[in-house]
Design goal:
2 domains; Rossmann fold; Dihydrodipicolinate Reductase, domain 2; six-stranded parallel sheet; globular
Length: 351
C-alpha cells in the first residue's frame, strides 16, 4: 500500500498524538517532515519519531514528496497557513477550528474547490467508534425521528493546567471556539445541518490568573465571551441546545443526548473516539449499553488525515471535509452574532 506523506506544521502539545498515530497506527500514512517556529521543538519531535527532515514552512511546501500538510498551529495562524498550503498545491488538514473568521473559511473552501484540493479540519473524533455507532443507531431508526438534542461542555477554563493558556481567552478562543467544534461536529453528523440559531453570551470574569506552573501568577485579559448558550433549529425540524462555558466549577449534565420519537440516545464524550453509548427505547425501563460497532475506540487523532489518504488513493470523497468544517464555523459565529444582535441568525452554509 502506498502511504500518503504528511508534513506536520506546529510541534506543540497536540502534535505528539498525531505523530504517534500517523507513523504507527494508520497503515496508509507516513510523516515526511516537521516544522515549527521554535526549531528546537521540531528537532525534538523529529528525533522522537524518526523523521528525517526538519523544515521551514516554505521548504516543506516546496517538497514534492509531501502530499498533505497537517496544520497544528494555534487558531490565529490557521487561515494564513492553510491558504499558503493550498496555493502551493497541497492538500491540508487543520486543527479546529477551520479558521477564526467565517469569511476566511469561505475563501479557503473556494480555493480548495477551485484547485481540486482536499481541505479538511478537526475534529475527526466523529469518525471513531463511539459517534459512528450513534450515527448508525439513528440511521437504523432505533430512536425514531430525532426531535431534540442537548449538549453541555462546562468547566472553569484551562489556566489551571495548560502551560500557555492565553490564547483560550483571545479572539478565536473561548469555550465555543475551543470545544464547540467537537460537540457541533458530532451533532450535525448525527442529526444533519442546522437552519437557524439563537444565542446568549456572558463574560463574568474580565481577567484570569494562571495557576499552572510555567506562568503561575500571570494575569490574562479576557477578550471573548466565556459562557455561550445556543439554540439550533436543524433542517429536519429537530431542536437542539448547547452550552459551552469556562465559568462553571462542576456539573452533572450529560455531554450529549439525542431524543427521538421512539427513544433516546446518550452519546459519549465527543472529544474522544470511543466511550459508552446508551440507548433507551419506548417502553423499556432501563438504559441499555450498546456495543461499539465500528473501529477506532482509542485516541485516533489523525484519523481524518488517514481518511484523506484513503480518498486520495481511491478517488473518493473525505468525511472531515471543508464544507462541514465551514458549517460548524458559521454555527459558532452564529451564536455570537445572534447574542449581539438579539435576533435569530439564519445559516448560509450547508453540507
Amino acid at each position: 500500500m502506498k502511504k500518503a506523506v504528511v508534513g506536520i506544521v506546529g510541534c506543540g502539545a497536540i502534535s505528539g498524538i498525531y505523530l504517534k498515530n500517523l507513523t504507527g497506527l494508520f497503515g496508509n500514512t507516513s510523516v515526511g517532515a516537521v516544522c515549527d517556529l521554535d526549531r528546537e521543538k521540531a528537532e525534538k519531535a523529529a528525533g522522537q519519531y524518526g523523521i528525517e527532515k526538519v523544515y521551514t514552512l516554505d521548504e516543506m511546501l516546496a517538497d514534492d514528496e509531501i502530499e498533505i500538510i497537517a496544520n497544528l498551529t494555534t487558531p490565529k495562524s490557521h487561515y494564513h497557513i492553510c491558504k499558503k498550503t493550498l496555493e502551493a498545491g497541497k492538500h491540508v488538514y487543520v486543527e479546529k477550528p477551520l479558521c477564526v473568521e467565517f469569511e476566511e473559511g469561505m475563501e479557503l473552501v473556494d480555493i480548495a474547490k477551485g484547485r481540486g484540493l482536499m481541505l479538511a479540519s478537526a475534529p475527526d473524533t466523529f469518525l471513531g467508534a463511539g459517534i459512528q455507532t450513534c450515527i448508525d443507531l439513528i440511521d437504523r431508526g432505533r430512536i425514531g425521528r430525532p426531535v431534540a438534542a442537548t449538549a453541555y461542555m462546562m468547566c472553569h477554563g484551562h489556566e489551571s493546567w495548560h502551560p500557555d493558556p492565553e490564547f483560550y481567552y483571545e479572539t478565536g478562543g473561548g469555550p465555543m471556539f475551543d470545544m464547540g467544534p467537537y460537540y457541533l461536529t458530532a451533532l450535525v453528523n448525527m442529526i444533519g445541518p442546522v437552519k437557524s440559531v439563537a444565542g446568549m453570551t456572558a463574560m463574568p470574569f474580565a481577567e484570569r490568573t494562571i495557576t499552572s506552573e510555567k506562568k503561575k501568577g500571570k494575569v490574562i485579559k479576557v477578550e471573548v465571551p466565556t459562557h455561550v448558550c445556543g439554540l439550533m433549529e436543524f433542517q429536519n425540524g429537530a431542536i437542539g441546545s448547547i452550552i459551552t462555558s469556562f465559568d462553571v466549577w462542576g456539573h452533572n449534565n450529560p455531554r450529549i443526548e439525542i431524543h427521538g420519537t421512539e427513544g433516546s440516545l446518550s452519546v459519549p464524550d465527543p472529544n474522544t473516539f470511543g466511550g459508552t453509548v446508551k440507548l433507551k427505547t419506548k417502553g423499556s425501563a432501563e438504559w441499555q449499553d450498546m456495543p461499539l460497532a465500528f473501529p477506532y475506540p482509542e485516541n485516533a487523532r489523525g484519523l481524518g488525515i488517514s481518511d484523506m489518504a484513503s480518498a486520495l488513493a481511491q478517488g473518493t470523497g473525505h468525511r472531515a471535509n471543508g464544507d462541514m468544517a465551514l458549517h460548524v464555523l458559521e454555527l459558532m459565529h452564529g451564536f455570537h452574532i445572534a447574542a449581539d444582535t438579539k435576533s435569530h441568525y439564519r445559516l448560509k452554509t450547508v453540507f
